Amino acid sequence: MRNGLSVDVEEWFQVGAFERVIDRDDWSALESRVDRNTNDVLDLFGEAGVKATFFTLGWVAARQPALIRRIVDEGHELASHGWDHARVFTMTADAFAADLTRAKGALEDAGGVRITGYRAPSFSFDRRTPWAHPVLAEQGYAYSSSVAPIAHDHYGWPDAARHGWRPVAGSPLIELPVTIARVMGREVTAGGGFFRLLPSRVVDRAILRANREEGRPAIFYFHPWEVDPGQPRVARAPLKSRIRHYSRLGAMKGKLAALVRRHAWGRVDEVAAAEAARLA
């Protein structure tokens, strides 16, 4: 079974862990590393012969058009991660619609392809955003991968469905939540920091459980900054945020290279199309 391989393309300074200590007005003065890091990820995928979806900030697309063209030219899916990593539950429905429009314009201008997929920054669709999926449907998106069906201090919708579902009655829109792993009685997202911190077998088990026991594809994610152990350190960030962000960055590239060879992977839009057929 083919699983969804996804990359959330953002700068190291745009993450939720630093949103209270790095002001958006200062972003343009900080060292940009997203081009180099994402190119490293593209090289890794090319060596492994896999395709993926790159959920990319419009802010990045407007500044890195050559990177966006490489993503598209190499057969990966270009999808939206919003404009500047603002969490959706901090917006109104109108502000969210404007954010989608702005990001989509930058992505389509840079990539020359139609954008049909979306992932909310920090998986910020939850009980507080009942209007979010309808706004996506109104704008013609085919799918979203914006829900983490767990409880977490930064995100989570614990009672949401664990696999593909239709969130808007009468609409073909599909929601593909990120896959959940289990470790020591706790549920965590199968990707990102938890993949860096935990033994690889934890995520392997989650993928195999989804495929073999539940008969459904898994959705895995990570960020380009996670393969960059040399990125700047934000000393004034809270200790918990620094541990989450910087731990085991040096191990990530090797773990990813092994993971993409152990399972079958594809673009998230392909997974969404298969799930749509299943739900028809």
Question: What's the quick description here?
Answer:
The chain is an alpha/beta fold and 280 residues long.
Model description:
The chain is an alpha/beta fold and 280 residues long. The protein has helices at residues 34-48, 58-63, 65-73, 93-111, 132-138, 192-197, 200-213, 239-246, 249-262, 268-279; strands at 3-9, 53-56, 77-80, 117-118, 143-144, 174-175, 180-183, 186-189, 219-222, 265-266. The chain is globular. The model has no long low-confidence stretch (mean pLDDT 96).
Strand content: 5-15%
Unreliable segments (pLDDT under 50, ≥5 consecutive)?
none
Output mean pLDDT. Answer: 96
How does the overall form come out from the CA principal axes?
Answer: globular
Helix content: 25-40%
Helix-strand sequence: EHEHHEHEHEEEEHHEHHEH
Distance between the termini: 19 Å
Number of strands: 10
Specify the biggest β-sheet: 5 strands, parallel
Helical element count?
10
Radius of gyration from the CA trace? Answer: 17 Å
The secondary-structure class comes to alpha/beta
Identify the notable features of this structure and list them briefly.
12% strand; 3-stranded parallel sheet; 10 helices; 5-stranded parallel sheet; alpha/beta; globular
Helices, strands, pairings?
Blueprint lengths: L2 E7 L24 H15 L4 E4 L1 H6 L1 H9 L3 E4 L12 H19 L5 E2 L13 H7 L4 E2 L29 E2 L4 E4 L2 E4 L2 H6 L2 H14 L5 E4 L16 H8 L2 H14 L2 E2 L1 H12 L1
Parallel strand pairs: 1-2, 1-9, 1-10, 2-3, 4-5, 5-6
Antiparallel strand pairs: 7-8
